[in-house]
Amino acid sequence: MLDFRIATFLKLCETRSYTVTAQMLHITQPSVTQHIKYLQKKYRCTLFTYEGKALRLTPEGEYLRRQAVAMTKTSSKVLEDLHRMTEKRRPLRFGCTKAYGETMVPQVLGKMMNQDEDLEVSFCIENTKTLLEMLEGGKLDFIMVDKNFAKPEFGCVDVTKDAFCAWACPELAETLGNVTLKKLFREKLIVREEGSGSRLLLDRVLDNRNCDIDDFYAHMECNAPSIIRELVASGVGVTFGYASCTESENVVKINVTDLNEKREICFFYLKNNMYPDGFHQFFENFTKRWKETFAK
């Protein structure tokens, strides 16, 4: 839907080379030059300049780049929406964090799909940073993440509340007893990768105390919550995570006297999405099944 010359412009912004841009777009180098000249004439400004041999964006060029990226995302979303409107069935594209997506959400989705044979869901599990990018890029209809990551352009529907705690195997937790967060620095930390919700929350908790994960005796990163739970259960070290999808017979809460994090888990969707009514019916059914499944 966008002018094809915008695609050339964005590729040139990425490569900073007329030759490489032409090769990647399978057009001639003079064509790349003509596309850029056309845009500069249309917008009455210079988009690129040379500093020595390096091709640089002008302030006007950088502004156009930001706007073009946003327009490209919107254009892709419009095309997807129009395509979905012509289909009889419209699968709901649902994204969820790994912590909940590998443990609790499948139980709820299973009940919903058993009770509604017409329900179609495309389910994606990723870390929070990736989910937010996919939602904003129009690749997902809604995501289930910590409410802490809300943005003005997101609609929000609450699902549940959860505690964010420190965890260890029963033997280590008993040995530690009542401890402050800083006392845990003597232990090995097993932590999620950067971009995950639990990692972002832990970083904030530590930053509020002028600390970071390097203050622990040692730490390792892992992008699989199930593996982290296994390592913690075997006594390798401690971790931090949401209570409802971390606690088990072999992974128990450490009583950290100065850590009391209560979190809200919710659905985010873009407010300007064209299917909010269908989403809210799903949200209502999902939260109902959630409460039925995990009521204590």
Q: Main attributes?
A:
alpha/beta; 11 helices; 22% strand; 11 strands; single chain; seven-stranded mixed sheet
Question: Would you kindly provide a written description of the structure presented here, covering whatever features stand out?
Answer:
This protein has 296 residues and is of the alpha/beta class. It is built from 11 helices and 11 strands. It has helices spanning 4-15, 18-25, 29-43, 59-85, 98-101, 105-115, 128-136, 170-176, 197-207, 225-233, 276-294, and strands at residues 48-51, 54-57, 92-97, 121-126, 142-146, 154-168, 188-191, 218-221, 239-242, 252-253, 261-270. Strands 3, 4, 5, 6, 9, 10 and 11 form a 7-stranded mixed β-sheet that branches. The protein has a two-stranded antiparallel sheet with strand order 1-2. Strand 7 (188-191), helix 9 (197-207) and strand 8 (218-221) form a beta-alpha-beta unit. Helix 1 (4-15) packs across helix 2, helix 1 packs across helix 3 and helix 2 (18-25) packs across helix 3. It is globular and about 70 Å long.
Strand percent estimate: 15-25%
The span between the termini is 51 Å
Helix proportion of residues, in percent? 40-55%
Unreliable residue runs: none
Please identify the structural class as seen in this structure: alpha/beta
Largest sheet entry = 7 strands, mixed
Shape: globular
SS field, number of helical segments:
11
Question: What average pLDDT do the residues reach?
Answer: 91
Q: Rg to the nearest angstrom?
A: 24 Å
Spell out the helices and strands N to C.
HHHEEHEHHEHEEHEHEHEEEH
**How many strands in all?**
11
Oligomerization state: single chain
